[in-house]
Amino acid sequence: MLSSNKKRLIIEGNIGAGKSTFLKIVDSYLDIEPVVEPIKKWQKVGKHNLLDKFYSDIKRWSYTFQSYAFVTRILEQEESAKKALSDFLVIERSVYSDIYCFAKNCFEMGVMSELEWELYKEWFSWLVDNYTIKPTGFIYLQTDPEICLNRLKIRQRQEESPVGLEYLKRLHDKHESWLINKVGISEYLKDIPVLVLDCNKDFESDIDEQFKHIKTIANFYNLDYKINSLNKVNLNTYIEK
After folding, report:
1. Residue by residue, what is the 3-state secondary structure of the chain?
2. Spatial separation of the C-alpha atoms in residues 107 and 37, rounded to whole Å
3. Which of 36, 149, 156, 181 has the most CB atoms around it within 10 Å of its CB?
4. Structural domain boundaries of the chain?
């Protein structure tokens, strides 16, 4: 079980929303422990690239990949929490996006059978009950699917080449239903605060946009005192504007 005295902010968003980049930016400004998504584990399972298999033949590999994804996510977060020097973890995606967005979408698309969906939910419920702790809050990088697709093309991750606009639109709707409308989710998740950030603008190379988002996070979660000394002057100057 993860240590309950560590706070956890979860960065959520569609494929291509910029979660990995955003996590690096947050880490550069605030005193946090970053926890990245275990993509490398998905890309190398023995001699196999499971992420590539999933996108190449989604019907064949959806149950296998989605199950492995949430298990490795829990393991990664557990190990990171044990080693963390900071009491505040900022995590790239949670197991809740696994079930409410990605696995559910596979089932609704008909690429995960009803039996596989029921098996997935049983495994998920047991693992979440025994190995996860209620998040402190969510940071939702709300991004238009068209912009996500453009960012996917720019980063050129080989496995994601089959991802199209319709798939991203479906995932966008799932994120909106969960994080904005809070429909069809566990009751205990409804009380967890969600900070919604408009991430349609390019925040990777725009310092002002970075400061704006960091200021919002710091104020929303009372993190001003955790600003790293390296960027403290610049960020405090921005906050005073």
Report:
1. CCCCCCEEEEEECCCCCCHHHHHHHHHHHECCEEECCCHHHHHCECCECHHHHHHHCHHHHHHHHHHHHHHHHHHHHHHHHHHCCCCEEEEECCHHHHHHHHHHHHHHHCCCCHHHHHHHHHHHHHHHHHHCCCCCEEEEEECCHHHHHHHHHHHCCHHHCCCCHHHHHHHHHHHHHHHHCCCCCCHHHCCCCEEEEECCCCCCCCHHHHHHHHHHHHHHCCCHHHECCCCHHHHHHHHCC
2. 22
3. 149
4. 7-239
What is the per-residue pLDDT for 85? 81
pTM for this entry: 0.89
The stretch 51-59 carries a mean pLDDT of: 96
Residues in the chain: 241
- Determine the CATH number of domain 7-239: 3.40.50.300
Distances from the Cα of 110 to the Cαs of 58, 119, 184, in angstroms? 10, 15, 19
The chain-wide mean pLDDT, for the chain, equals 89
